[in-house]
Design goal:
The protein has 354 residues and is an all-alpha fold. It has 3 domains: 53 residues, no CATH class; 174 residues, no CATH class; 40 residues, no CATH class. Helices cover 67% and strands 0% of the residues. The protein contains 11 helices and no strands. The radius of gyration is 37 Å and the shape is elongated.
Length: 354
């Protein structure tokens, strides 16, 4: 065999040896496509045979999460968009026709709308969260220092107003000379039972301790107490809704409606009221800033809210205008008493509980 032939054979062998690892490496780096599993035929929770998207026995949705991530994301997006459209449709009907929304739910047409309890929870969370963000003024029981501007104003009044009695002038000038400010007003004591000559009962001792702990002797903790009370109001309102439904049950006892029907309307009308207050509050703030001449429009919005509640009552309970008007005002008065009593109970609970 010639040298040229031997060199050619050796060269081919070297080329083959170099190409083989490359082909193996290419197979290792190649993505292995997984086959999507077949659709579920039995419920993964209870084992019942599936006849649709949901299990007929336990109600679990037939979704297999052992799939590629893109399929799971597609399912989640589809569920969210479906829920989002349902939420928007329910909110729109709640604003325009709250009574009609209640009638539809009671009549069994529920798949297109959010459940009343879920709707109330969503709207109330937004409402009370916005209410917590709004500033709230509280009484100030602390001493206030007189600024240089106030001091100059006092001195100017002393010079320009001759009707000030001489003894008052002397006292103010003495205070300005000694302390640099008029006599500071004393901090009011919030101790309820503070008679040293009279023996205190255990209840009086407990009340004084609670006042010191919750409000402070000089009202220094009043702001914290009010904030705590505000944080308890959402829970209070959630308990007041069944009471409102009970008031409706008594008012419309002769119609023979079930209590749950009144409760559905109570959830809808409270959700409507919270949403209306949110819209009016933000509209009022916007008009104060950009359109101060249009602030009277908020009164028109409040009147529209009251009219909408009135019309919803008539649409749901289908009584005459006279009876609807009478029960609207009478039921509103009763519910106002319920709210005041609930607020007192909440304040006492906030004050008494640790």
């Amino acid at each position: 065999m010639s040298d040229e032939t031997s060199d050619a054979i050796v060269g081919d062998a070297v080329v083959d040896s170099l190409e083989k690892p490359t082909r193996k490496r290419g197979r290792l780096l190649r993505w292995k496509q997984r086959k999507e599993p077949p659709p579920l035929t039995h419920c993964e929770d209870c084992g019942e045979k599936l006849h649709g998207q949901y299990c007929s026995k336990c109600g679990q949705v037939a979704v297999d999460y052992r799939r590629s991530f893109r399929h799971v994301i597609a399912d989640v997006a589809e569920s969210f968009l479906n829920w989002d459209s349902k939420f928007i449709q329910t909110i729109g009907l709640l604003v325009r026709r709250p009574g009609w929304l209640t009638n539809q739910f009671v009549a069994g047409k529920r798949t297109r709308f959010l459940h009343p309890l879920r709707l109330y929870l969503l709207v109330s969370i937004a409402f009370f969260l916005a209410a917590r963000l709004l500033p709230m003024e509280t009484p100030d029981f602390g001493e206030k220092e007189v600024t240089p501007e106030k001091r100059a104003e006092v001195e100017n009044v002393m010079k320009t107003v001759p009707q000030i009695p001489n003894d008052v002038r002397a006292e103010v000038r003495k205070a300005l000379a000694e302390n640099g400010a008029p006599p500071a007003r004393k901090k009011p004591k919030l101790i309820i039972f503070d008679d040293p000559e009279k023996p205190k009962t255990p209840f009086e001792e407990w009340m004084n301790q609670q006042v010191k702990a919750k409000l402070g002797e000089d009202g220094t903790k009043l702001q914290f107490f009010i904030e705590t009370l505000r944080s308890n109001i959402p829970t209070m309102m959630l308990f007041c809704i069944p009471l409102f439904a009970f008031v409706l049950k008594i008012l419309y006892l002769r119609q023979g409606r079930f209590y749950i029907e009144h409760l559905v309307y109570a959830l809808h009308i409270h959700s409507f009221f919270y949403l209306a207050v949110l819209v009016i509050s933000f509209s009022e703030m916007a008009m104060k800033r950009w359109l101060p001449a249009w602030q009277a429009l908020t009164w028109i919005l409040w009147i529209a809210v009251v009219v909408q509640v009135f019309l919803s009552i008539r649409q749901v309970y289908r009584q005459s205008w006279f009876m609807t008007t009478f029960k609207f005002f009478f039921g509103g008065f009763i519910y106002l008493i319920v709210l005041i009593a609930a607020l007192v109970v909440t304040a006492v609970a906030t004050f008494a509980l640790p």
